[in-house]
Amino acid sequence: MLGLMQEQPLLISSLIEFADRHQGDGQIVSRRVEGDIHRYTWADVARRSRQVANALDAAKLAFSARVATLAWNGYRHLELYFGVSGSGRVLHTLNPRLHPDQVAWIANHAEDEVLCFDATFLPIVQAIHARCPGIRQYVMLCEADKLPQDSGVPNLVAYESWIGGQSSDYAWPSFDENSASSMCYTSGTTGHPKAALYSHRSTILHAYAAALPDVMGLSARDSVLPVVPMFHVNAWGIPYSAALTGCKLVFPGPALDGKSVYELIEAEKVTYAAGVPTVWQMLLAHMAPAGLRFSTLNRTVIGGSACPPAMIEAFREKYGVEVLHAWGMTEMSPLGTLCTLKNKHLSLPPEEQMKIRLKQGRAIYGVDMRIVGDDGRELPWDGKTYGDLQVKGPWIVRDYYKAEGGSPLVDGWFPTGDVATIDADGYMQITDRSKDVIKSGGEWISSIDIENIAMAHPAVQMAACVGMPHPKWDERPLLVAVKRPGMDVSREELLAFYEGRIAKWQIPDDVVFVEAIPLGATGKMLKTRLREMLKDYRLPA
Ligand code: ADP
Fold this sequence. Notes:
The structure is a single chain. This protein starts with 11 loop residues before the first helix and ends in an 8-residue tail after the last helix. The chain folds into 2 domains: 16-366, 3-Layer(aba) Sandwich (Rossmann fold); 440-533, GMP Synthetase, Chain A, domain 3 (2-Layer Sandwich), CATH 3.30.300.30. The protein has a 13-stranded mixed beta sheet, with helices on both faces. The chain is globular and about 70 Å long. By secondary structure, it is of the alpha/beta class. The protein is 28% helix and 25% strand. Adenosine-5'-diphosphate binds at residues 186, 188, 232-233, 303-306, 325-330, 334, 360, 416-418, 430, 433, 439, 442.
């Protein structure tokens, strides 16, 4: 017997319709690329996202066609979130921090047809358009009078003219909730970047879960600042959860330095902020010397990399801000665990509570997790035994988009590439990473790319790249190289060899020359041994 409840597909358009009808006067504040502050409401987002949908219809974009963005966190980007997905197309948020070669590869792989970009990223568009024949419309997120006349970019239109002539009436279509809604490529894997292709259903379920009290805990009384980029797993889903809860949204635009973020928090009475540790390092470094205090901020969710204990302590003890340590992945929409205490922990002394807060946290309902040994058998939840962390759930990838080599799942579980312990209370703690990538300031650097470039240098016989701890960026790449017999190359020459071949911030911080790189029985480089060899090494300041 089936239940007798109404059947309604879970669609992203329902979020913006809800926000329009129930919290239409809720505020959205954005620092713009132009430098000024822009203000409007959820009703305005709804109206203009309907205009976006009409513009896409006018351009005859098919259902599921990809509309890419290269944009900061801001109101126009938010309109695209709802207008593109709501009308049945797929929003593809490109990462502007990548080298233009990588951006072009990803845009072609995704088969993007429209690219909407902030003025800041015009140079990237100029570098890639000739190589991206599938993109038939470029939309610069600006007023008509700000559109450059001599950009060389074909079919370029200003966003305000593109949507300006369109009607603000639009009937959002209904379709299968499993249809694709947005996509995000991750470089946190081996080989080419791979895309997580989210669905309407996965996005809505994630939006519900993220808003729960022990997860992000968002409410209509909050003023929320997502510093985490909208091109980074949909700003951890905050735009969707915000539409559902009716919180105020504050977008930082391109200004992510400590001073700008602090001023925005104070001016917009921000209660809640989200970002990677590096952003908060910059904020705290700005505040400490001047003795600045927060007037309204009371919670901050920190994830993307392990949150250093000193940061949790500084936020809590010095500034009275609760830190919510979160773990997730692009492949997980991204939320997997969040660290909040249970009732029984409230009577523990502060240092015992701190030990718990440092963990990556408990699984959110909707995410199942386990740790397994090399033989694939599940390991005990004793807080000591560590193994490969696997997850499953309705907002976790089953397959990568157009990926070769079949599904990444193992017995129905997604292998995260993280190594972790889980304790008897279900708190997961990351202890290591089995995937060969480096995460610097929340962004991935592929060890293999770095190694391949070094190996292309005539004087290099073998090269290995490992991540080294760094106080600001969490990790930075170090290149370990073996010179070819009879040939010479200096550290400086080798580092210069990377210029133009990779994004500047991905270039290793240093080179260490060694006689040999430790190899395993199958000839694979033994990075664990290499890290042991380098245990006393420190990156140059
Ligand atoms: P995001 O940065 O949004 O979490 P990514 O897909 O870029 O998503 O990165 C996911 C990876 O980042 C994880 O597999 C893990 O290696 C690392 N990571 C994310 N959050 C944490 C955390 N809180 N502590 C340690 N590592 C983390």
